[in-house]
Write a structure and sequence with these properties.
TATA-Binding Protein, 5 strands
Length: 129
Amino acid sequence: MIDEKTSPHDFETTCQRLTDAVPANGFGLLHTHDIHGTLNAKGVDFAPQCRVFEVCNPKRAAEVLAVRMDLANALPCRIAVYERDGEVIVSMIRPTEMLATLSDDAKLAEVAGDVEQTMGRMIEETIGH
């Protein structure tokens, strides 16, 4: 269900490349959560860098919500960049698999497939050379 790719770039470069790839693929970057910074600011000693990027295509989100408003719980989509075992990882939960656990609506499955393809392209552009 989680699609992970290893980045050949350092953490900050990977985050910047993702920030650039999001609008280049027709999505907006709604917010970036600095998990490392937030936990450390709250007194939790958390060493690895970790950022979660909330991304959204408004047209696609509206299509989903028009069918099932309760799926607002699954929006916006998220892409994580984190350090693990000396590597920088870029990952996402596959929208098709997440949606399949929540709905069997064919229209929503089609939207999820398109979104997943675009998010995959964002990740490939992020880790590309």
